[in-house]
What does this fold into?
Amino acid sequence: MTPGISSAEAEAPGPGRILLAFLQIALSGFGGVLPWARRVLVERRAWLDEDSFNETLALCQTLPGPNVVNLSIVVGSRFAGAVGALAAFAGLTLVPVAIVIALGALYDRFGDVGRIPGAINGLGAAAAGLVATMAAKMARPLVRRRPLGAAPFILAAFIAVGLLRLPLPWVLAGLAPLSVAVAWRSRP
Amino acid sequence: MKPISGALGTLFLQFAGLSLLAFGGANAVVPEIHRQSVSVHHWMSDRDFAALFALAQAAPGPNFLISTLVGWKAAGLAGALVATAAMCAPSCVLTYWVAKVWDRYRQTPWRIALGAGLAPVTVGLVSASAWLLARAADHGWCLALVTAATGLAAVFTRVNPLWCLAIAAALGFAGLF
It folds into this structure.
């Protein structure tokens, strides 16, 4: 048995059930899909136990790319190979992409009609607030654990990209190696 | 204006690159998507960007959907599909291959340092996203108040974020903003 997979692997799900599970995750996930990924994969279907879910998530957060999309690839491929990965990806993305394209078309058509602009203004302001919350929640444990190692890099990335509007590749090339070096030196 | 095929190529290259730079997820590259689509390529106004991001947030599903909408705005349906595929494919292929060898490197000190070092940079980038989105969305103190109230509600209560979006949209529809 491959490490990191729960005992439920004995009855490994096929591509069809994988697709349905990720479709369920995608459609439940208003404003944040990861909590639903945990609920569906760990609690409801018991395909992964709590620990293997966390380990898989750590992998998906280390690698670049949308985290939950990475999660679909890892979980799908563990149970059903490349076909499973494609099934999980399709389940996660196809319907949301169709919905958001429909919303985009409606916005093009009705974005400046009547009271719609007001509603979209409100929506945009609230969405910005939600992203700020996400940043705050991510920052808290880092700053608590390594105040001097983490805070300067949070601030530097914010200033470089948010205030100075420097291109992301430069900022990453400058800050990431330094930040990793600092983390390396302070490793336990 | 560039022909559509030119825009498709630009979209593909831009999002394929961002896919591999999106450490910490899609929200970390929102500032760069904003810079490219508003300042560099002039596909949309600041206000459009805020609106599209809001639509992507309000839709169910993963949060890379802003790239789908930027593609839509730049080059229609083909643009939406190209941007989506480019945003996902490179990182998916990388993940697929790394997942096979992950168990071997999971506990190595350099892997742990890599994760710990990237995290603060990611948080700074997500903060920059929030800042730029707020600047694009908050025309006037009333909307700034909505941003602040939403942020506080989401930090200090367990309210479903969808309610914040719904209430803010309803207030706007009622004519407050």
Remarks:
- Residues 67-110 of chain A form the longest helix (44 residues).
- Chain A has a mean pLDDT of 90.
- Chain A has three domains: 7-110, 114-145, 146-188.
